[in-house]
Amino acid sequence: MEDMTGHVKDGRSPLYLVARNGHEVAVRLLLENNADTAARDNHGFSPLHAAAGYGHEDAVRLLLENNADTTARDDNGASPLHWAAMNGHEGAVRLLLEKNADTAAKNNNGASPLHWAAMNGHEGAVRLLLEKNADTAARNNNGASPLHWAAMNGHEGAVRVLLEKNADTAAKNNNGASPLHWAAMNGHEGAVRLLLEKNADTAAKNNDGASPLHCAAGYGHEGAVRLLLENNADTAARDEDGDSPLHCAAGYGHAGAVRLLLEKNADIAARNKVRESYNGHECAVRLLLEKNADIAARGKHGRSPLHWAAWNGHEGAVRLLLENNADTAARDDHGFSPLHAAAGYGHAGAVRLLLENNADTTARDDNGASPLHWAAMNGHAGAVRLLLEKNADTAARDDNGASPLHWAAMNGHEGAVRVLLEKNADTAAKNNDGDSPLHCAAGYGHEGAVRLLLESNADTTARDENGASPLHWAAMNGHEGAVRLLLEKNADTAARNNDGDSPLHCAAGYGHEGAVRLLLENNADTAARDEDGRSALDEARRRGHGAVGELLRQAAAAASRPQQALVRQGGIHRAEAQRDGPPAAPPAPPPPAAALKTAEDEAAAEARRLGEEVARERERREAAEGVARQAGEELARERERREAAEEVARRLGEEVAREREGREAAEEVARRVEEELARTQQQLDAAQQAEQRSIAVISIAELRNATDSFSEANQIGQGGFGSVFRTHQPLPSLPHSGPCAVKRLDAGGMQGHAEVHAEIRVLSVCWHEHLLPLVGFCLDATPCLVYPLMAGNLESRVVDPPRDQQRFSWQERVRAIRDATRALVYLHTPLATKSVVLHRDVKPSNILLDAQGNAKLADVGLAREAPELQGGVTHLTTQRLIGSPGFIDPLYTQSGRFSELTDGYAIGVSLLMCLGGRSAVAVVDRFGNALEGSARAATVTDPSAEWPPEVAEQALEIVRGLMWRQTPSRRTRLSEALRLLEDMANAQGLRPGITDGVDDNSSVADEGDHIALEHTFVAINHGARHPTNN
Q1: DSSP strand pairing (776-778 vs 696-697)
Q2: Angle between the 348-356 and 315-323 helix axes, to the nearest 10 degrees?
Q3: According to CATH, where is 1.10.510.10 located in the chain?
Q4: Higher pLDDT, 380 or 935
Q5: Which of 286, 516, 650, 841 would suit a FRET pair with 109, their CA atoms being 20 to 30 Å apart?
Q6: Is 9 annotated as a binding-site member?
């Protein structure tokens, strides 16, 4: 007989495999041959786990008769009873309980079998566990009881059974939330009603001070709000931020909830954030105004509702407030009027409405800036034009003496500069530092603004309070384009500032080689000296700019050669003149002889003369010694001064080096910020386009006609949502579209109406070129969603392509991941039209491809709108794990916390699949050593993709940052990962984005192409959950 303990794929024994598939005869045969019931696979699952998880009662019975261990735990700490309970297999639960399986067993997250049965609404399993005295008060690691989970997911049967066993309705989890909080927050009216019938406390507060009514109102669940109000829930309750339920409902635009609260006399005078205007919910604003809400109420920073509406550009709310005589002259704590707010953020519609209502264009904030200053500073040319049409003052000065033209020029906003110059804004205006607009534009290197100012005859000779000209500023900061433009207008290269520095000194001192070269080409004087006697060459050498110094040395040498030739010529003439001059004069005749004296007189005179000479020599020697001593002292002092100067120079050099490093770092930060701002602006443009998009409402009859009554011939997919069909003819509601994919909700589908509404809600406000658009929907008896038909998905082209298709090359894989990451970053970015959206089901099978290889991220049915993440909150917490096996972040599994990093983990796994060409679980195992750094990526990549080793290493480093690091703070943000992917793609010359004119609503699938819109959930064998899925 063969060895019955042999292991195959994933460490699974033959007994495990037949138990998982419920082959009773094979199980019995293996057990008769002593197969090991305790054998574990690579995930810690025993054969009993498999049989129980799939509900194969005969296999469970045989294993228990052979003493299979009911206490065995898998790698997540779950027992066979956990898995049987989670999947609602009552027969398996009963058999395990008969063998005294432990109802109190907890998995690694602290959940008991009763938690799992309640979470999934398996009423029969819940009842069986309770008959065995399972603990209704058991808490998991987040403090949630089984009643919490049943209520959160709206499983009324499980809630009823638990309440019959006196489950505690007042139990609080770690966040202080009761089961009633969770039921209300998710809008499960049946669960809310059952809890209220058991006197659940409507006044209970969670850790944020929110009551169940806050939760229901904030999420707009009208049914739950009505039930709570019928049970006298307190409409005046305040959370920690001072918000009442009315604040929450109005702040998120839930008009139905607002109406219900107002009918119960909720206090409209309650003061806090006036979020209904902030978020622009016109209906909520109208309802509150109809109830005489205080239109002059001040909230955070002293801002009125009109401030907030104008600040965020909500024209409808602005119009309503103005129609009700809102004060356009109101000032906040910083002196900003509503017109400042609208102009500063470029909301032209709001600016127009305020100006039509005589808003003051001369109003000044606490820094003396007018609305025109703010519009100009931020480059909102439309708002600038509107203000100027109302004669806003172009000569207005702020407290620093700057005009609107200064602000526009300093920030390089060409459109605003042009509009101001058309209104004759003064190019010669000086701020308090003596700077003209041209100084500002040149100093910051804004070539477009410099050009416009020069075309308007801005003065290139203007000097600031330090005597510097615009050319000084451009040269000092190395802005070659600005330097070139100024020199073309004959800016003076010989101009000196108050320290005697020329523009060449400035460029050389800061090491700007390009600017130095331009100045030298325009005959800048290399011999010019500043007040300290230094030339530009001296400055370059003193500050360690070797290349610039060499450039200046060569220029100086070239300039000095003609002069040296003249000096040499003059020296030759002088030498010849000396050689040919007249002879020296003859010596003078000797003096006449002296009178003779006596010998004594001569001796005495000689002795006297010699004595005087000795005295004079002594005096000369003493004087020379004094001079030498003074010279030595002076030399010592000079040496000390030189050493001190050298120390100062050394320290100055170090300071300059640090300054240079800081400046280079600041320039790098500025570059990244500029790139991020550009991406954000693109996303804002996309969001504004999305506001104008409409999604067609299509009748079920029209869809039936286009799919031959959803015939099998037109069925192209099956998933947890239901079935997917292709249309064989154009839809009348979408006359310009090609073939479409229609996803129809099955009656027994694992997803329900909530996911349908979630998908419609998200895609109605979100639009991006790499996000699969929703083009139509039907909410009749059989809900349907309609999308453009796609050609396939990334997983099918990377892991197991059809025979008639080749695997993707590495370039195609990088493009697809980059495109999907672009869509994710867009979803994560809060815009005026949308909040943060977390996808929560990112995987290659949800990255769809058109015929040109462009990728679009699909399937947002499990997405979560997360406005909380816009207010400093770093993560959200849930008891209900959402996602697909292999792509769920372990940090999410362990703590229930999810955020943008959760989607980042999934995109990291997807990129790893592209590297290895294997499934999620298999590829992580294969790349383990490479991820740890002990192996090269090239040794384990998919050979069919032909990854270049250096590109594979770059991609693997991105994967490490996204999913391999175990602490959130060390994970790479998705926006940074996108930057790295963009850099990698650009370096390799990959196509930048959508190509070949593919339109969102066009057909990109040929006949025979297949759609890949299947929803991969933990569903195997008609709804059973696999034990590996937690």
Answers
A1: parallel
A2: 10
A3: 700-987
A4: 380
A5: 841
A6: no
pLDDT at 287: 52
What spatial distance separates the first Cα and last Cα of the chain, rounded to whole Å? 37
Give burial (CB, 10 Å; 0-12/13-18/19+) of 688.
middle
> Could you read off the pLDDT of 18-75 as tens digits, one per residue?
999 888 888 998 999 999 999 999 999 999 999 999 999 999 999 999 999 999 999 9
Where is 407: in which H helix or E strand?
helix 404-410
pLDDT digits (tens, 9 = 90+) for 454-506: 999 999 999 999 999 999 999 999 999 999 999 999 999 999 999 999 999 99
For residue 809, pLDDT over 80 is answered with yes
Give the relative orientation of helices 414-422 and 381-389 as an angle to the nearest 10 degrees: 20
Q: Is residue 408 very low, low, confident or very high in pLDDT (cuts 50, 70, 90)?
A: very high
Length of the chain in terms of residues written: 1030
With b for 16 or more beta-carbon neighbours within 10 A and e for fewer, the 64-93 pattern comes to: bebebbbebbbebbbbbbbbbbbbbbbbbb
Examine the residue annotation and report whether 459 is marked as an active-site residue of this protein: no
Rounded CA separation 479/441 (Å): 10
* Alpha carbons 215 and 842: distance in angstroms, whole number: 28
pTM of the model: 0.43
- 700-987 homologous superfamily: Transferase(Phosphotransferase) domain 1 (1.10.510.10)
Report pLDDT for 352. Answer: 93
Is residue 883 within 8 A of residue 841, CB to CB? The reply is yes
CA 405 to chain centre: 32
Cβ burial of 627 (10 Å; 0-12, 13-18, 19+) is exposed
Q: Which of 387, 407, 386, 404 is nearest to 395 (CA)?
A: 404
DSSP type of residue 945: G
Q: Where in the chain is the domain with CATH 1.25.40.20?
A: 493-560
Tell me the residue ranges of DSSP E strands in 306-444.
none
Structure tokens at 730: 């154009």
Helix/strand/coil for 846:
helix
Considering only CA atoms, give the Rg of the chain. Answer: 41
CA 667 from centroid of its chain's CA atoms: 20
Task: Supply the DSSP symbol for 941.
Answer: S
For tokens 């049946």, name the residue.
190
Per-residue b or e along 729-761, where b marks 16 or more CB atoms closer than 10 Å to that residue's CB: eebebbeebebbbbbbbeeebebeeebbebbbe
Q: Within 13 Å of residue 479, how many CA atoms lie on the same side as its CB? A: 23
Contact between residue 726 and residue 1004 where contact means Cβ atoms under 8 Å apart? no
Task: Provide the residue type at 775 as one letter.
Answer: V
Q: What is the CATH number of domain 493-560?
A: 1.25.40.20
Higher pLDDT, 849 or 664: 849
pLDDT tens digits, 86-114 = 999 999 999 999 999 999 999 999 999 99
Give a three-class secondary structure readout of 718-773.
Answer: ECCCEEEEECCCCCCCCCCCCCEEEEEECCCCCCCHHHHHHHHHHHHHCCCCCECC
Cα 302 to the center of its chain, rounded Å: 30
User: What's the pLDDT score for residue 603?
Assistant: 65
CA distance 799 to 844: 10
Over residues 957-983, mean pLDDT: 89
Q: From residue 593, how far is each of 589, 590, 596, 599, 992 by CA, in Å?
A: 12, 9, 9, 17, 114
CA distance 1021 to 855: 31
Closest CA to 201 of 231, 236, 163: 231
**Residue 155 structure tokens:** 């499983």
Look-up: residue for tokens 């294997």?
A: 918
pLDDT in tens, 693-739: 568 889 888 999 999 999 999 998 887 678 899 998 888 888 767 88
Q: Catalytic: which of 841, 850, 942, 1009? A: 841
